[in-house]
Amino acid sequence: MNFAIKKVTDVFNQQIQATIDGKTKPLGALGQLEDTAKIIAAVQLSTVNTGQQSLSIKHPSLFIFAGDHGVAAQGVSIAPSEVTSQMVANFASGGAAINVFCKQLGWQLSVVDAGVLSPTDNCLGVINQRLGNITAPLNIAPAMSLAQVELGFEKATALVKSVHEKGCNLIAFGEMGIGNTTSAAAIMAAIIGIPASECVGRGTGVSDEIVKIKQQVIEQALELHQGNLNSAKEILASLGGFEIVQITAAMLAAAEQEMLVVVDGFICTAAAMLAIDINANVKDYMIFAHCSGEQGHQKMLSHLQVKPLLNLGLRLGEGTGAALALPLIQAAAAFYNDMASFTQAQVTDVTDANNNKVEN
Ligand SMILES: O=C(O)c1ccc[n+]([C@@H]2O[C@H](COP(=O)([O-])O)[C@@H](O)[C@H]2O)c1
Ligand SMILES: Cc1cc2nc[nH]c2cc1C
Fold it and tell me: What is the DSSP string of 18-57?
């Protein structure tokens, strides 16, 4: 599957910067909200809203993709794989952190079974996009086949298209999967080309001893699959998870539909790295919500040269960081649309006086 993602043009950058700088505030005083407004404006002025001046966040939707990881049986998590299906049931009945935040903040929340141990057919509203029950342990065999990766890409793409058709223009991704910090750290090591020790972390909160086991498992996996890590899809088949496959594809499909993409924590950023590897244009559509407490996440973000909005020490996943960033994203669009300019408010333009921006 290929994704035709329009490159966000820089033709409007000067206009966008002038709009932001013309607002009644010292230059740069809205900090990262200004950077966020620039991302939204660059996407919306150069794609959907060409020529239109105001920014819009329509029907913000958050998708949690859940998948189980065979590597969990190698003792790399505090929790057994059964917890993934149990948490999916918790999402379906509204009891998880992400349910509370989505309800509070006005996100539409959907839960996707990308392949968890116990099929979740009896969970109300859970979307069935299963690629299997659980991946193979990545240090022993390829996590899945390339055919499963392709199927995941097809299913995720169709899902995103249907959400876009309902009028959504901003989509966020979260995940749930016991063992998936091992998979994400292995993906990170493969993509960045750094040792497993720099990528591995405590995940759900494992001990130093288990961190060492995780590191060994990742090192075994990288050695086993060397030669089969030449493309993002090969990396996904060798080291991925069913939820990571579908998040990667969903990010690409969302950018293809000219939607903004909100990236959550460590695992979702691993998917973002893979998506960027497949089509670099997708990065222009991404807003990085937060820096997770998972060691390795800051390194991923630095590698991508992006600055997330929040740094709250969250390490839950489920899309919780993405959900909490929504009010800031909305605030960025709102100040861009609604703040008065120096001219409109008849306030002395301090940017001219102090920064010699106007040549006269
Ligand atoms: O989003 C993050 O940065 C993050 C950091 C640490 C853990 N998690 C969550 O914890 C689970 C994976 O942890 P583990 O220890 O089982 O690999 C998975 O369900 C993730 O949603 C998520
Ligand atoms: C209880 C629990 C909830 C989670 N939510 C995301 N990852 C999780 C991991 C565990 C163990």
Answer: HHHHTBSS-TTTTHHHHHHHHHHHHHHHHTTTTT------
For the chain, give the percent of residues with pLDDT over 70: 96
Q: Is residue 240 a contact partner of residue 207, using CB atoms and an 8 Å limit?
A: no
Average pLDDT of the residues in 90-117: 97
Q: What is the mean pLDDT of residues 260-289?
A: 98
Question: What is the residue with the minimal CA distance to atom 11 of ligand 2?
Answer: 79
Q: What is each CA distance from 202 to 70, 87, 184, 276, 344, in whole angstroms?
A: 18, 20, 12, 26, 52
DSSP 138: T
Residue 285 DSSP one-character state: G
Give the C-alpha separation, 16 to 8, whole Å: 13
| Ligand number with the minimum distance to the CA of 292 | 1
Pocket of ligand 2 contains residue 83 by CB under 6 Å: yes
d(CA 21, CA 341): 9
CA angle 329, 268, 160 (to 5 degrees): 75
How many CB atoms within 10 Å of residue 301? Answer: 20
Dihedral of CA atoms 268, 270, 273, 279 in degrees, nearest 10, equals: -60
State pLDDT tens for residues 280-301: 999 999 999 999 999 999 999 9
- CATH number for region 61-328: 3.40.50.10210
Model-level ipTM above the cut of 0.95 = yes
Q: How far is CA 53 from the centre of its chain?
A: 27
205: left (phi over 0), alpha (psi -120 to 50) or beta: left
Contact 42, 284 (CB under 8 A): yes
In this predicted structure, the answer to whether residue 360 has a pLDDT above a threshold of 50 is no
Cα of 181 from ligand 1 centre, angstroms: 5
pTM of the complete model beyond 0.95:
yes
* Residue boundaries of the structural domains of the chain: 61-328
